[in-house]
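Pinned message: reference record for Secreted protein
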Amino acid sequence: MTIDWAALGQVFGVTLVVTVGLVGLFTVGIVGTSRKPVREGEAAAATAPGAGARAGALAAFALCAAAVAYGIYLIVAA
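Predicted structure (C-alpha coordinates):
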Protein backbone atom coordinates (compact mmCIF):
# COMPACT_ATOMS: atom_id res chain seq x y z
CA MET A 1 0.00 0.00 0.00
CA THR A 2 1.36 3.40 -0.95
CA ILE A 3 0.31 6.84 0.18
CA ASP A 4 -0.01 9.64 -2.36
CA TRP A 5 1.56 12.38 -0.24
CA ALA A 6 0.91 15.08 -2.82
CA ALA A 7 -2.83 14.38 -2.86
CA LEU A 8 -2.88 14.21 0.94
CA GLY A 9 -1.14 17.59 1.10
CA GLN A 10 -3.62 19.10 -1.34
CA VAL A 11 -6.57 17.84 0.67
CA PHE A 12 -5.01 19.23 3.86
CA GLY A 13 -4.33 22.61 2.23
CA VAL A 14 -7.81 23.00 0.76
CA THR A 15 -9.40 21.90 4.03
CA LEU A 16 -7.35 24.41 5.99
CA VAL A 17 -8.16 27.30 3.65
CA VAL A 18 -11.89 26.52 3.51
CA THR A 19 -12.13 26.08 7.29
CA VAL A 20 -10.36 29.35 8.04
CA GLY A 21 -12.46 31.12 5.42
CA LEU A 22 -15.73 29.77 6.77
CA VAL A 23 -14.84 30.66 10.36
CA GLY A 24 -13.80 34.14 9.20
CA LEU A 25 -17.06 34.59 7.32
CA PHE A 26 -19.05 33.50 10.37
CA THR A 27 -17.05 35.96 12.48
CA VAL A 28 -17.97 38.76 10.08
CA GLY A 29 -21.62 37.83 10.61
CA ILE A 30 -21.26 37.88 14.37
CA VAL A 31 -19.51 41.25 14.32
CA GLY A 32 -22.17 42.65 11.99
CA THR A 33 -24.96 41.78 14.40
CA SER A 34 -23.21 42.77 17.63
CA ARG A 35 -23.99 45.90 19.52
CA LYS A 36 -21.35 48.59 19.74
CA PRO A 37 -19.90 49.08 23.23
CA VAL A 38 -20.70 52.22 25.15
CA ARG A 39 -17.79 54.61 25.55
CA GLU A 40 -17.07 56.28 28.82
CA GLY A 41 -19.16 59.40 29.29
CA GLU A 42 -21.89 58.42 26.80
CA ALA A 43 -25.44 57.29 27.45
CA ALA A 44 -25.86 53.90 29.10
CA ALA A 45 -27.68 52.25 26.19
CA ALA A 46 -25.57 50.36 23.63
CA THR A 47 -26.18 51.28 20.01
CA ALA A 48 -27.68 48.74 17.66
CA PRO A 49 -25.92 47.90 14.38
CA GLY A 50 -26.97 49.82 11.28
CA ALA A 51 -28.98 48.45 8.38
CA GLY A 52 -25.88 47.95 6.23
CA ALA A 53 -24.14 45.96 8.95
CA ARG A 54 -27.19 43.77 9.40
CA ALA A 55 -27.49 43.16 5.66
CA GLY A 56 -23.80 42.23 5.46
CA ALA A 57 -24.17 39.92 8.45
CA LEU A 58 -27.19 38.26 6.89
CA ALA A 59 -25.27 37.73 3.66
CA ALA A 60 -22.33 36.26 5.59
CA PHE A 61 -24.62 33.85 7.45
CA ALA A 62 -26.34 32.89 4.19
CA LEU A 63 -22.95 32.10 2.60
CA CYS A 64 -22.02 30.00 5.64
CA ALA A 65 -25.29 28.08 5.39
CA ALA A 66 -24.76 27.57 1.65
CA ALA A 67 -21.23 26.23 2.25
CA VAL A 68 -22.51 23.80 4.89
CA ALA A 69 -25.38 22.68 2.65
CA TYR A 70 -22.96 22.13 -0.24
CA GLY A 71 -20.69 20.07 2.01
CA ILE A 72 -23.61 17.91 3.09
CA TYR A 73 -24.65 17.54 -0.54
CA LEU A 74 -21.16 16.33 -1.47
CA ILE A 75 -21.21 13.77 1.32
CA VAL A 76 -24.75 12.45 0.73
CA ALA A 77 -24.90 12.56 -3.10
CA ALA A 78 -24.49 9.12 -4.56
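Pinned by admin. Summary line: Residues 5-33 form the longest helix (29 residues).
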